[in-house]
């Protein structure tokens, strides 16, 4: 399934800037960045729950905002993209 992760971390303090880096690192380990604080992750349900648990361990819920959008099926889900962006097709074979 496709999961969209969006976050807004309060970076007014050094601790907030550290949280921002840690949240981004967790997201980068699972998906691809499509905006500064938005990631697309192709995961199973178990992986999504693990991702959510790891992200919740990093954010301060009193200061930060974390949103996960679960798209159970890409059918019926339309993404319109404008501007320069290089994406990875998760369905194609990975060539290194």
UniProtKB/TrEMBL annotation:
User: What does the record give as the organism's lineage?
Assistant: Bacteria, Pseudomonadati, Pseudomonadota, Betaproteobacteria, Burkholderiales
Return the EC number: 3.1.-.-
Q: What is this protein called?
A: CRISPR-associated endoribonuclease Cas2
UniProt binding sites for Mg(2+) = 8
Q: From the record, what ranges are coiled-coil?
A: none
Question: Which keywords belong to this entry?
Answer: Antiviral defense, Endonuclease, Hydrolase, Magnesium, Metal-binding, Nuclease
Q: Which cofactor does it need?
A: Mg(2+)
Describe the task this protein carries out.
Answer: CRISPR (clustered regularly interspaced short palindromic repeat), is an adaptive immune system that provides protection against mobile genetic elements (viruses, transposable elements and conjugative plasmids). CRISPR clusters contain sequences complementary to antecedent mobile elements and target invading nucleic acids. CRISPR clusters are transcribed and processed into CRISPR RNA (crRNA). Functions as a ssRNA-specific endoribonuclease. Involved in the integration of spacer DNA into the CRISPR cassette.
Any Pfam family the entry gives:
CRISPR_Cas2
Key word Hydrolase present: yes
Please describe the quaternary structure of this protein: Homodimer, forms a heterotetramer with a Cas1 homodimer.
Similarity comment: Belongs to the CRISPR-associated endoribonuclease Cas2 protein family.
Q: What class of enzyme is it?
A: hydrolase
